[in-house]
Amino acid sequence: MNNLSALMIFLLLFAAGSALAEDPPQSVVTEAAEELEVCSAVHLEASDTPEDAGGSVSLYWQMEIDGFEPDSLGVMRSDPSGGEELIVTLPFGTVMYTDQSADNGTEYDYWVVSYSGGTVGTSSNRAEAVPSAQWIYKGRIGMLIILFLMAAVIIYYIESGKKGRKLFIREIAGLAAVDDAVGRATEMGKPVLYIPGIMDMDDIQTIASIVILGRVARKTAEYGSSLLVPTSRSVVMSVAQEVVKEAYIQVGRPDAYNKENIQYLTDDQFGYAAGVDGIMVREKPAAIFLLGTFYAESLILAETGRSVGAIQIAGTAMPSQIPFFVAACDYTLIGEELFAASAYLSREPKLLGSLKGQDAAKLFFMILIVIGVVSATIGDFWSPLKSVAEFLRKLVTVN
Amino acid sequence: MNWEILGIWLGALVTLFLYSFLYRDNPFYKFAEHLFVGMSAGYWVIYNIENVLIPNWWQNMFPEGGGFDWVWLIPGIFALFMLARIWPKTAGLSRLSLGMIVGVGAGLNMVSFFQTNALAQVKGTIFSVASGGVWDIFSSLVLVVGVVSGLVYFFFSKAHTGIMGKTANVGITILMVAFGASFGYTIMARLSLLIGRSQFLLEDWIPTIPRLLGIGG
Amino acid sequence: MRLIIPLAITFTAGIVMILNFFIPHQPFRFLGENLQEWYMIVASGAIFLGVMNLMHVHTRKIRLKLKNWKYSPVTIIGFLVMFVTGLIYGVTENLPFDYLFMNMVAPMGATMFSLLAFFVASAAFRAFRASNWRATLLLTSAFLVMLGQVPIGAMLWDKIPLAKVWLMSIPNVAGQRAVMIGAAMGVVSTSLRMIFGIERSWLGGAD
Amino acid sequence: MADIFEKLGNLDRRIIFVLIALAVIIPIIFEIVFPNPVGAEPSRDLFDYVDALPAGSNVLLSFDYDPSTMPELQPMAEALVRHLFEKDLNVVGMALWPQGASLGQDAMSSMADSLGKVQFEDWCNLGYKTGGGVMIVRLGTSMSAVFPTDRDNVPWSEIPMLRGITNLESFSLIISLSAGDPGIIAWVMMAGDRFGVPIGGGCTAVSAPTLYTYLQTGQMVGLLGGLKGAADYETLVGIEGGQAVKGMAPQSVAHIVIMLFIIIGNVAYFTRKKKGGAK
Fold first, then answer.
1. For residue B57, is pLDDT > 80?
2. Has the ipTM of the complex gone over 0.95?
3. What is the pTM of this model?
4. Cα(D258)–Cα(C119) distance, rounded to whole angstroms?
C-alpha cells in the first residue's frame, strides 16, 4: 500500500518533471518553475532501529530533484489514537533521521513534509513502524560464545591452580632480571625508578603495571633501596601509594615507606616526559622500569634512562612502541609478557593457572587460523570447503 | 608591547631551553621543565573542569531548564570518596571509587581488546593463500606463518624446546623484522616534528630579532 | 573485610560493562553508558588530588631546602598562573589562558615531542649492530625501510621502495597481529582476575 | 686506526644530535630541493591508473581530512587535481570530514583558475555530508538524493556536468584523501567492494601500513602514503618545486645521516670484534 502510493507520487512528479523538460525556451522554464510544487521527500522507509534498547525508529528518504527547494523539512508522526505531531524540523538536504521518542509496541505512521515560505508544501509517502527493544546484538553472538568459553577455560585453570596442580612457566628474560636490577641499585646506593605508563587506572595495562609495582616494591623493601614512582594520573598515584605502602608493611619495613617518593607530575603527556627526564638525570637511578601503556614518549624516556646508565626493563602491549623499547632498553616485555609478569614474579598457583588458560585460548585461535587458511585455500579448488572458511570468518566477525 | 611578538619570543625561549637538555642537564632546562610541569598541570585542571566536570556532571545534575537529576549525585559521591584520601581517617573510602574505576576499565577493556585485537586480527588472517603469482603466495604464507609462530612464542606454560622452540624462534624472528620495519618507518614522522620546530625558530622567531632591534622592517 | 565492598563494586561494574556490549536492552544500556561517564567524572575530579600532591611536594622541597629547591617556585607559580587565568578568563580563544597555552604549553609539548627526532637517531646508531643474526634482521629491515622512505632508495635501485611496502605490509602486519592477539589474551585474563577479585593487590590488599 | 673505530663505536651521542640538527636546518635555510625519482610504488600505480583514464571520465575526489593533516594531504590534493584537470577528466569533489569541503575547494578552485577549467562544467564541489559508510552506500543508489545541491546550494539539476551521473557506478575512479575514520577504509568497503568502483587514495604516513593490505588484495588501485607519496605525485605530474618535494629535502638528508651512523656503528663493531678475536 505504502509502496504503491510512493510509486504514484513518484510517477506524478516524474511526469511533471519530464513534461517540463520538453519545454524548449528557457524563459518558459522560469515561468513554469513558479507553478511547480516545492520538491518533496520520496521513498520514505521507516523501521524499528535494530539492536537497541527500544523506543527508536529509523527513517530514511530521498529528495525529489525536480521542483524548487524547500526551506526546511518536517518529520510528522501519528499514533493509533490519531494524534498527529511534528517531531522535528530538519534543514533541507537531510536524508535520514532517528526518532528516539517513540514508545515500544506502538504502531506509528511517519511522513516527511517540505516547508516553503512557512507553509507546508508537499508531503512524502507514509511509512509505518513499530519500535521494539532487543535482548541481544545478533552480530555479537559469535563473540559472546568464544569469550564465554575462554573465560570458562581461564577460570577452570585458575581453580585447578588453586587446588595445587603443578604448573610450569617458561623463562621470561626481562622478569628474571628484576632481582638483579633491584640488587644492583642497592649495591650502588641509587634509587629504583618505576614508570607505570601514562594512562589512567581504567587502562588494563596500567592495572597490570600496578600489580607488578607491588612485587617490585616488595623487593626494594627487602633490599632497602628507595623506590621513586612519578605518575601522570592522580588516580594512579593514589593506587601506587596504596600498593607500595602495603608491600612495605608486608615485608615488615613500614618505616622505610616514603610517601613523597610517589608523586604526581602532570596529566600532560610531554610535560610528564620532561619531568621524568629531569628526575632521571638528577636522581640517576640504577634501575628503571617502564611498564604500562606508552605512546610517543616511550623513546624520550628510554633514551634518557639509557644515557644515565640505568638497567632498563620495559614492557608494553602497544605494538607501535615496542620497537623503541627493544632498541633502547636492556629487556623488553613484549605484549602478552607484560600481563604474564605478575604471575611470573609471584609464582602463585592461581595466577600461573590463568597463564595456562591464556595458552589454551591462544591454541584455540591458532587452530582457528590454520583451519581457516587451509579451508579457504582448498576452497578455491573444491568449493564445499569454502563454506567452512566462510563460517569461521563469520564466527569471528563482530557487528 | 606587541602581544604576538611576545608570544613568539616566549615560545622560542622555552623551545631553546628544552633543547638545551640535549647537551646536558642545566639550569635552563631545569627552569623550563619545572615551568612545563606546573603550567601543564594547571592547564589540565582547567581542562577537566571546563570539559568534563561542568558539561558532563554539573549541567547534567542541574539541567538548563531547572530541576535536579539525582542520578548524578552518584558520581559526585564517588569523586568525593576519591578526594577523601586527603585525610588519613577517611582514606579507606577511596577504595570504593577505585573499585568502580577498575571495574569499568576491566569490563570495557576486556570486550574492546577481544574484539579489535583478537577477533578482527584473526579474521584478517583467514584467507586463501593460493591467489596471485608465486611471490603473492609466498607473501601470504609468510603472513600466516608469522602470525601463528608469533603466537607460539607467547606460549608460557610449555618450555620452548624441540619443535615448539623452533617455531617460537621463527616467531621471534618475524617479530624482529616487524620491529625493525616499524622503527625505520616512524623516523620520517619524528623528523617532521623537528622540521616543524625548526621552521618555527627559523621562519617565525629569527625574523623578529632585526625588527626588535629596529633594523629593517 | 575492608576489601569486600570495593571488590563487589568492581565485580558489578565489570559485569555491567561486559553485558552492555552484548545486550542492548535496559537496564544494561543505561547503566553501561552512565558508568563510563561516571568513571570520567570521578577520574577528572581526582585531578585535585594530584595537584595537591604536586603543590605539597614542591612546598616541602622549598621548606626543607632540598636539592634543586630553587626551581620549585617555578612549578608552583606556573601552576597558579594557568589555574587562576583559567578560572578568571575561561578557555575562550585569545584570552590570557588560551594565550599562555598557545604560546608556552603547546610549544613546550611540541619541543619535547620533537626530541624524538634526535633520540631515534641515537637509538638507531647504538642498537642496530649486527651482533647476531636476529639483530642483523632487525637492522636490515629497518635500514631497507629507511632507504625506501627517501628518494635515494629509488635512485639506488627502483625495487627498494617496493621492499619497504612489502616489509610494512607482510612481516610488519604479521608481527603486529601476533602481538595484538597475544596481548588480547593477556587483557582478557587480567580483566577476569580483576573482576572476580582473584588479584587484589591493587587495592592494597594481601593476595 | 683501530682506536678510531673504538672511538667511533662509542661516539658521544651529542655529535649525532648536532648532525641531525644541521641535516634539518641547512636544507630549510637554503631551500634545497632534491630530485625525487619514483620507483615501482603504489603512488606510481595511482598515477598510471589516472593517466590511462579516457578523457571525459568522471572521477570522484573525496576530501576526508582536516587542517591538522594538511602538510601531508594538501600537496596530494593539489597534485591530484592538477593531474585530473590536465587529463580532461570531470572532477566531482565531496568530503566525509566537515572541514574537508573547504580544503578541497581551495585545491580545486586555485588549480582550475590556473588551468582554465570551468566550475560546473569541468569540476564541482558537492560539499560535506555526515554519515560516513552509511552515506556512501546511499550514494550507490542515488547521488542526487544525498546531494540535492552542491556545497554552495546550487541545485544538482542546474549543474551541467552532473547530468550523466546517477550513482557511484557512474564514476571511473574514486579517490579518497584520508586522515582517518571515516576515510579510505569506508570507501573501499562500501563503494569498492559493494559497487565495484575502483578506489585510489592518499593517506598520512601513520595510517599507510594498514592500508597497504588493501593494495595487496587489489581492493585499491594505488595509494599515496604520507609526504613521500605526495612528493611522488608532484614529481610524476611534473610540478616543479612543489611543497612536498621541498619538504622531502631535510627528510632525505636526515635519513642519510642516520643510515651513515648505522653503517659507522657496524664497521666499528666488526673492527673491534676482529681485533678482539685476534687476541
1. yes
2. no
3. 0.86
4. 11
